[in-house]
Amino acid sequence: MKHFSLIALLLLYTGISLAQNSNLQFRSQITYPFECANIWGYVDAQGNEYALVGTKNGLSICDVTQPDSITELFAVPHNINAWREVKTYANRAYVVNEAGGGVLIVDLSQLPDTVSYHSFTGYGIKTAHTLWIDEFGKLYLMGYNTNANLPEQQRGIMILDLTTDPDNPTLLGTWNGAYVHDGFVRGDTAWLGLIIDGKLGVLDVTNPQNVQIMALQNTPSLFCHNAWPTSDNHYVFTTDEKPNSFLTCYDVSSLNNIMETDRIQSNPGNNVIVHNVLLLNDDYAWVSYYRDGVVLFDVSDKENMVQVANYDTSPLSGSGFNGDWGVYPYLPSGNIILSDIENGLFVLTPTYVKAARIQGVITNSVSGSPINNVLVNISGTAINKHSNINGIYKSGMMNGGTYNLHFSCYGYEEQTVPVTLYNDSTVVLNIQLIPLPSFSQSFTIIDSVSNQPLPFAQLLVTDYGSYNFEVIADANGVATINTFYAGVYDAIIGVWGHKTKLFSNLSLTSSTNSYTAKLSKGYYDDFYFDFGWTTGTNPPVGQWVRDVPNATYYNNIPCNPNQDVVGDFGAKCYVTGNAVSNSAGDDDVDDGCVILISPTFDLSNYNNPLIKYSRWFCNTGSTPSPNDSMTIIINNGIESKAVDIVTPTGNASELSKWIDKSIMVKSFITLTSNMKLYVRVCDIPPPHLVEGGFDYFRIIDTTNMDYVEDLFNEDNLYTVYPNPTEDYIYISSSNKITPIITFTDITGRNVKEISSYRNNSKIDISDIPPGVYFIRMIAASGNRTVKLIKL
């Protein structure tokens, strides 16, 4: 049923937070001296319930019939130290891993007394990442490899028949059109996570010898890990195995027009990684959420998914591949079993509740037209939804009660409305927002000495919230935003040949709608703006790109450091290749050199210029030893000189991390008005893993010492240290003033505030998740903003 709410209600809600463990009761646990992977369940003819836990040593078979006193009955070894995935068919368990040994087949028919097992290596089967067994007894090995060592992009699915002889499967066919990470098969359709391609793949598997692609769909983080359809194949749910990733639902009733219906996160802004999703009766989605444990979502409304239960099995938080790997919710008792990588097998008893939902239409109070992209926040929570193009919003809570709903949209007055929600019901609340008056705002960018205009300067105006506007000035140095609203903003302005600068706390109104910004001459580029660096040569992969770097690993060791340089604007740098995959070999430099070329800079009037920059280089791989290089070259229009050469042997301690470098230009080359900098990364045969990064370029005339390093804090009024940091910081002020301090994340959301700070006292920041933040110090003697990296 639906309850209808008036805008004015009697009660106000002041705050809410999800309990750490809700609607899931702990029953018992088994820990292991080694790590665990995925899990499945099994029920014997007598009704006894079992957990089949894939471990790094093999398969652990545990009796969970009595949930408060579970026991391990058998540990089936496989002599291979690797992650394992397990599924069942009839009275057999099938176990795969990525290291070798084929498919482990375990006969469960004699449980609880004994088990027998053997390895199946027919058809050259060596490994598989995951597996699925459909209702027809077809075994699908996903991400499989054979003794022929298939290239990764060809490790698709191998289809085997189990019905004739479950101990010796028969090959039906293969599909090798992409790497398949995980998936679900029902009837003639396979729903697959094509994780390297970043897509959900929908395949017709009617004929295993002629599998056909029916549809491909990008997922939010372009790293589709697994997929699970509803029983009627009308909807499918996907997970992306990335930090801050989503459980996402799609309407797939028409494969020619797949439409996203909703997406949801367990712990927004905490960088947690989602792993696997399984559906129960099409109304609930059980999700293993790594460091956040197991999470249950009410998905009965496919356009408004709501979290209704959770149990955290891990002491860790944030990004990382620890904690809950998998969950199995299909035991007849109703208990769920899950495997935590470090903490073993858990048995939990769920209480299933339906969410308390709200929805409505948001319109313009003057025109009556729907308003798109209104942020709807349930006050005191991290639950944020946005209205769609038709002005429709939908949200909800785990528990019914009285809450405050906050509606905000740039160009409209904000509105807060109290509302009472009810479990298993949907309240309808329509909202009208009052539009604000707009005006045209102009920015004139000029040289700080000559007052001459700076043509084509680039500008970002932001309130660190709903408004971010990027604009390029015209030939007269004037940048105009035609539709603008009164408020307090920051502006970041830059142009090649002048120093990028932050203009803080600009109070802009219709009466002060023209602002003049002065930039000092000099060369500075942290790649927040695109000042026209170009690329040379064209190897198959690994070309330089200006982007926020994605982490890469080789044998679980970081290659790409996963962030730009601390202390500059924004989060972008130049990096060689930037594929969404975390594997160092997926988008590295191959078979040649990639070159990054600066715009021309004039040093003819510099007395003793110092070029400063930061770079990282990764060169690794198997034998023979890596032999590749990164070279920084200065050219003056006449000749070129190498000024910095990085190799895996000569600079071993500098690999895979940002290194700050300073180059006295006159020591290498004659100064001219036609200077350029080249950054070259080369992969020299035999091939190895080769990646590089470049950031924070600036030129200082050491005779004049006219450059201040901290562009956020130009007069060094404040010093924040350590930075980066994990749990605490100190802020030192040269004049010992007492500021108000706010911490804002990159979306503009305030995450922490200190009303009165004592100079050089310790600030505990363990309560905010890892990420990039702006610390703003507000005081009578001056306001400043400093970027902070929380590890």
Describe the structure concisely for a colleague.
By secondary structure, the protein is mostly beta strands. Helix content is 0%, strand content 48%.
> What level of helicity do the residues show?
under 10%
Q: Give the beta-strand count.
A: 66
Q: Label the overall shape.
A: globular
Regarding quaternary structure, what we see is single chain
Strand content: over 45%
Query: Which structural class fits the helix and strand makeup?
Result: mainly beta
Number of separate helices: 0
Please, could you describe this protein's structure?
Helices cover 0% and strands 48% of the residues. The model is unreliable at 1-19 and 705-716 (pLDDT under 50). It is mainly beta and 791 residues long.
SSE layout and pairings?
Layout: E1 2-4, E2 24-30, E3 36-43, E4 49-55, E5 58-63, E6 71-77, E7 84-89, E8 92-97, E9 103-107, E10 116-120, E11 125-127, E12 130-133, E13 138-142, E14 145-146, E15 157-161, E16 170-175, E17 182-186, E18 189-194, E19 199-204, E20 212-218, E21 224-229, E22 235-240, E23 247-251, E24 259-264, E25 276-280, E26 284-288, E27 294-298, E28 306-311, E29 324-328, E30 336-340, E31 344-350, E32 356-364, E33 375-378, E34 384-386, E35 392-397, E36 401-408, E37 415-421, E38 425-428, E39 431-433, E40 439-447, E41 458-462, E42 468-472, E43 478-484, E44 487-494, E45 501-508, E46 514-519, E47 523-525, E48 534-536, E49 544-547, E50 552-554, E51 557-560, E52 573-576, E53 592-597, E54 609-620, E55 629-635, E56 640-646, E57 659-664, E58 676-683, E59 689-701, E60 718-721, E61 728-733, E62 740-745, E63 750-754, E64 762-764, E65 771-778, E66 784-790
Parallel strand pairs: 1-38, 32-38, 32-39, 40-46
Antiparallel strand pairs: 2-31, 3-4, 4-5, 5-6, 7-8, 8-9, 9-10, 11-14, 12-13, 13-15, 15-16, 17-18, 18-19, 19-20, 21-22, 22-23, 23-24, 25-26, 26-27, 27-28, 29-30, 30-31, 32-35, 33-34, 33-36, 36-37, 40-43, 41-42, 41-44, 44-45, 47-59, 48-53, 49-52, 50-51, 52-59, 53-58, 54-57, 54-59, 55-56, 55-58, ...
